[in-house]
Amino acid sequence: MTAHRGNELVLAIYPQSSGFAYVLFKGWDAPVDFGAYEVRGGKKNVRCLKRVETLLALHSPDVLVLQRMSKSDNRAPRIQQLNRNIAELGEAYDLAVHTYRRAELRESFARHFDAATKQRIAEIIAQQIPALSLYLPPKRKRWMSENAHMGIFEAAALAWMYFHNRPQSAEL
């Protein structure tokens, strides 16, 4: 385990078709705020970016963590653009922006917890962070849409990658 600064605020955001989900941490096991922001109607990206900007202004995080997306990923172009815009917004707020590929995340959770599916990763996170356990969606059936709360666990998994894979800090 690496040493971490105790006062570092880490905001992880996961864009999804209905809007975005986020988790703000003050240490891996200490969520400060979390939620799933849903947008209906037009101009979803514009409205999501305004909400992200509100979160950045309200919480003043030190680090922003996002999924690293490429054109070959199976994510809608609108979501990929939203992800890029959120990263640009983080840079405009002078935040350290870290990104992780979905494949990296799955490999890491498979290696550490023998968990490679979204559901199993979410279950592991819920076990480690009881505050999130109330939001754990039931296992999805093939005909069901993904629960918007699953995005909270996707964001938390991105933060887990940051907390567990960054270099040891000199500041203790």
Main attributes?
alpha/beta, Nucleotidyltransferase, domain 5, 6 helices, 5 strands, about 45% helix
Structural write-up:
The chain has helices spanning 44-59, 77-92, 102-113, 118-128, 130-133, 150-165; strands at 10-16, 19-25, 31-38, 63-67, 96-100. With 172 residues, the protein is an alpha/beta fold. The chain has one domain (10-164): Ribonuclease H-like superfamily/Ribonuclease H (Nucleotidyltransferase, domain 5, 2-Layer Sandwich), CATH 3.30.420. A 5-stranded mixed β-sheet has the order 3-2-1-4-5, sandwiched between helices. A hairpin with a 5-residue loop joins strand 2 (19-25) and strand 3 (31-38). The protein starts with 9 loop residues before the first strand and ends in a 7-residue tail after the last helix. The relative contact order is 0.21.
Summarize the structure.
The chain is an alpha/beta fold and about 170 residues long. About 45% of the residues lie in helices and about 20% in strands.
Helix content: 40-55%
What is the fold named in CATH at topology level? Nucleotidyltransferase, domain 5
Average of pLDDT = 89
The proportion of residues in beta strands is 15-25%
Helix-strand topology string: EEEHEHEHHHH
Low-confidence stretches: 1-5
Tally of separate domains: 1
Give the neighbour order of strands across the main sheet: 3-2-1-4-5
Main sheet specs: 5 strands, mixed
Q: Under the CATH scheme, which architecture would be assigned?
A: 2-Layer Sandwich
Write down the CATH class.
Alpha Beta
Distance between the first and last residues' Cα: 14 Å
The radius of gyration computed from the alpha-carbon positions, rounded to a whole number of angstroms, is: 15 Å
Q: How many individual helices?
A: 6
CATH homologous superfamily label: Ribonuclease H-like superfamily/Ribonuclease H
Question: How many strands appear in the DSSP assignment?
Answer: 5
The SS-based structural class is alpha/beta
